[in-house]
Write a structure and sequence with these properties.
- This protein is mostly helical.
- Helix content is 72%, strand content 0%.
- It is built from four helices and no strands.
- The model has no long low-confidence stretch (mean pLDDT 88).
């Protein structure tokens, strides 16, 4: 994935293919997020596009770390994301 990203800097045709793939994934994630929002499972006051872009970034970041550093436990990302979501001080969980 990292090599493909680097190649897009010098290959406009590859960049276009990657952009189209990203757009396809982003549209699908937006639909999933909107479904969660419609069901009341996720806040509806945050744009679905913002959530979708964040999810794509999270997946790409995880893949990049895995490619560069090898073993990256999914649990580490899950716990880190949970910690970021419940920020608010020592009593944030209670």
């Amino acid at each position: 994935m990292i090599q493909v990203w680097a190649e897009t800097m010098r290959d406009p045709a590859l960049a276009a293919v990657l952009r189209q793939g990203f757009e396809t994934v982003r549209v699908l994630w937006v639909k999933i997020v909107e479904g969660y929002q419609d069901a009341g499972v996720m806040r509806a006051d945050i744009p679905a596009l913002s959530v979708a872009r964040t999810m794509v970034a999270l997946v790409q970041g995880f893949a990049a770390q895995y490619a560069l550093f090898g073993d990256v436990p999914v649990q580490a990302v899950e716990l880190g994301l949970e910690a970021l979501m419940i920020m608010g001080g020592p009593d944030a969980r209670s």
